[in-house]
Amino acid sequence: xxxxxxxxxxxxxxxxxxxxxxxxxxxxxxxxxxxxxxxxxxxxxxxxxxxxxxxxxxxxxxxxxxxxxxxxxxxxxxxxxxxxxxxxxxxxxxxxxxxxxxxxxxxxxxxxxxxxxxxxxxxxxxxxxxxxxxxxxxxxxxxxxxxxxxxxxxxxxxxxxxxxxxxxxxxxxxxxxxxxxxxxxxxxxxxxxxxxxxxxxxxxxxxxxxxxxxxxxxxxxxxxxxxxxxxxxxxxxxxxxxxxxxxxxxxxxxxxxxxxxxxxxx
Amino acid sequence: xxxxxxxxxxxxxxxxxxxxxxxxxxxxxxxxxxxxxxxxxxxxxxxxxxxxxxxxxxxxxxxxxxxxxxxxxxxxxxxxxxxxxxxxxxxxxxxxxxxxxxxxxxxxxxxxxxxxxxxxxxxxxxxxxxxxxxxxxxxxxxxxxxxxxxxxxxxxxxxxxxxxxx
Lengths: 266, 166
Known about the structure:
The complex is a heterodimer of chains A (266) and B (166). Helices cover 37% and strands 28% of the residues of chain A. With 266 residues, chain A is an alpha+beta fold. Chain A folds into two domains: 46-155 and 243-265, Rod shape-determining protein MreC, domain 1 (Thrombin, subunit H), CATH 2.40.10; 160-240, Thrombin, subunit H, CATH 2.40.10. In chain A, the strands form two sheets. Chain A has a six-stranded antiparallel β-barrel. Chain A has a six-stranded antiparallel barrel with strand order 6-7-8-11-10-9. In chain A, a hairpin with an 8-residue loop joins strand 10 and strand 11 (231-236). Helices cover 70% and strands 0% of the residues of chain B. Chain B has helices at residues 2-22, 39-42, 50-68, 73-92, 106-109, 111-134, 139-163. In chain B, helix 4 runs antiparallel to helix 6. The A-B interface holds A 12-13, 16-17, 20-21, 23-31, 37, 39-40, 43, 47, 54, 106-113, 149, 177-181, 241 and B 21, 24, 27, 30-33, 50-51, 54-55, 58, 61-62, 65-73, 75-76, 79, 82-83, 132-134, 140, 144.
């Protein structure tokens, strides 16, 4: 017993260090997968309150930009009404859009998140898609009563299924870090002919996003003989540094599709 | 000593708020973010017991983590600083210059040894941070670590020249 006490007294610093380091490594490993990030969910509500306070001040400096975005969006909507009436009406039956204000955003980390000021109370659930006026932003990770946390496209865990607008070959969108203006596309095979400037859109196989939402244009591509898939870099349409508002997509047909697909697993 | 501990406890929320609201919004070259908050760990006097430094570093790191969405990254990196701080200060700072209860600031220990001392600690912190964040190591990450170390070192030196008095 005395030996044990002497040992503890001799190495007390090391013991405290290893104990705390153990806790933090454990937290790190646990929270790497998003299903387990319970602590984040709890912290979400308090964080939301604090961020919405500072956002009130920040918003004044962004008014000019917001106006510009709204104008752009208005013209886009006018064009939609005049060009294909039929298609548009069909779309509105399938999806419902909820608008929200982005109150926290980051772009410099490996795993980026956004916070918006709408939650459970406004009908938002985990797993819904989030878009802005010119592209895809991410997917809702968790919600509290008044706030929701979004996994940004600029995140290791994010994988959005996409297709080429011209050829309908599908792949998945990944972000490899560092630059918030570009992203990468995986699993498009070597034989598919791609040109620089091709548009990338969502493919609608998943129930999260409706088909045909713009994501970006091809910036560069290279054939990779090892994996058999091309290394494609795209330029994202959405400017993550200037985001102010977002739209949450709720798809009515998704429930039906999920119900049908769950039969396979049974 | 207990006076110093109380002082550092009420410095914590100030640096936390500065880091979250001001510095996390500032980006150099679109991906380099200065982490000023570790200045408080760097300048702590040697007399502060190591167990307090360790617990303090862990709590501080965890608070930064909660606000940035990835748990465990900053707290691991801060603990790395806390454990190597005393031995690094013994190597880099000349003996007989400082008393045990003095803060390790430029005015006391001189510009040359402060820059060496702080940049070693900042380099260790940033290496741990970015390698854990990206879970790989390659040339691009090395560049990011070095550039971030330089920028954080400059900001730490400037801040403590203006806000800490000998």
